[in-house]
Amino acid sequence: MLGYKPLEGKVALVAGATRGAGRGIATELGAAGATVYVTGRSTRARQSEYQRTETIEDTADLVTEAGGTGIAVPTDHLEHEQVKTLVDRIRADHGRLDVLVNDIWGGELLFEWDKPVWDHDLDNGLRLLRLGIDTHLITAHYALPLLIESPGGLLVEMTDGTAEYNARTYRINPFYDLAKVAVNRMGWSHAQDLAKHDGTSISLTPGWLRSEMMLEHFGVREDNWRDALEKVPGFVISESPRFVGRAVAALAADPDKARFNGESLSSGGLAQVYEFDDVDGSRPDCWRFMDDGSPVADVASYR
Is residue 295 classed as helix, strand or coil in its secondary structure? Predict the structure, then answer.
């Protein structure tokens, strides 16, 4: 149906929507017609320790341009009162919350590659855990009571790697490894409670994400990202942030989404279920590629 927006009238909170997957998810929820609250610590008035140009106001504008309503609320998700105030505002404004996406992270500047726990900076490692785990629990504590007031609510716990992949793969160092495995388990844990309230909880991972930081690292933009393939051939299996956004939007609009309750899902896997493509018209499946251990030369069958 021309102009049909499956999430029109729905209210979503994307916690951690300044950039990357959070921004892509918020934008696609907006394209589906939702009102989307976007949070983070980087605003036009004040930068986080990342010292980057992306802001939550920019994300809110993208949501509105896509066809939804974007509302930016500066929030530090480690601060209980800030999160409570955020949820109180959503309740006062709309009286409902249909989708909660916990994409809070902020750990890229804190982890050290291939360092055992005794060599890794302890303060940085412990802060990484707080940013990657505590923030999710704090936000769930305050937001889920509103979400379960309406039937069919959806909680998406964003992580890096499927539960199956993370169970057999050591992820960078003990702090990072624990953070990403914990979020997979968190999606399953919340599922046990939400099922009693006609709600659904899953954990979700994008593939190799062409985030703003990743594109900058390789010296390319979204419109010429393939120029990086000469240096990094494996980047051919990468995906835009909008791809995982389309996964969340499709799941949120599915009246039968409870069949996935408690599962660990990926953007590429959900693309096979809901038959959506990335912005370039392809359908990358990074984790199937990783699981199969295929050479880069065979990547065409995974995209």
Answer: coil
